[in-house]
Amino acid sequence: MLLVSGSIAILLYWLWAPRSEALGLATIVDGPAPADAAQVIVFLHGYGAGFKQGEEVARELRSAGLPGDVSVVLVQGPYRSGFFDYSWGRNSAEGAQSRARVRSLIADLHAQHGIVLVGFSQGAAVALDIAAEEPRIAAVASFSPCSIRSREQLADRDLRFLLAHGTRDGVCPVDRSRSLAKLLESAKKSVRYIEFDGGHEISHEAIKALAAFATP
Questions:
Q1: Among residues 13, 68, 101, 190, which is most buried (max CB within 10 A)?
Q2: Which pTM does this prediction carry?
Q3: Ramachandran quadrant class, 64 (left: phi over 0; alpha: psi -120 to 50; beta: rest)
Q4: Does pLDDT of 21 surpass 90?
């Protein structure tokens, strides 16, 4: 009985404990080392996803013409979502911790130029919140966010923006991106907004736009 209880406790800890800060966030780099790259893209996946989603985005970006001298850094969320998937947190405290850890990772990349920060779904919300305050970010691409905490601060930043959202998104309403696009346009920011006939996904049109957006 004690053995079973101990095994359950270990399993629960494995499922709920975040990745150790001492290890840093888990990453995969597609392309050259960030310090040597002509441009660096940092991709943050959606809730309940992980490297697989990022690897697919990287493959599609290369197929869409993203140059080989651009580094694509895929970052895995520090919190587990089930047995094999990951997230950026389940509450505001965990979200704040995730943002701090991504900012620390960005500093450690030693990129030669301003970083293009990209996110999908929960990762898009994290990317937008980081872009509102991180000076190393030069441009941000947000695909289908569910929430945006820092929209007013974003309007005050000198950034380039690429936004995309499906009109039939049943997970994160399209109005989240529509309203942000209107706010940024009224603030005279450099923004491109793509609205496509689709659900909660990254469209091929958005991938093509991102490849051009991130090409130096």
A1: 101
A2: 0.91
A3: alpha
A4: no
Spatial separation of the C-alpha atoms in residues 102 and 24, rounded to whole Å: 9
Give me the numbers of helices (H) and strands (E) for the chain, helices first please.
Answer: 7, 9
Closest alpha carbon to 160 in 177, 142, 176: 142
Dihedrals φ, ψ of 103, to 5°? Answer: -65, -40
Q: Where are the domains of the chain?
A: 2-213
Residue-wise pLDDT for 158-185, tens only, equals 999 999 999 999 999 999 999 999 999 9
Helix, strand or coil, per DSSP, at residue 17: coil
Helix (H, G, I), strand (E, B) or coil at 30: strand
Query: 209 and 162 in contact (C-beta within 8 Å)?
Result: yes
3.40.50.1820, 3.60.21.10, 2.40.10.120, 3.40.50.300: which CATH number matches 2-213?
Answer: 3.40.50.1820
Name the nearest CA neighbour of 71 among 27, 98, 39.
Answer: 39
Total number of residues shown for the chain:
216
Q: Strand locations in 106-189, DSSP E? A: 115-120, 137-143, 160-166
> Alpha-carbon distance 53 to 93, whole Å?
25
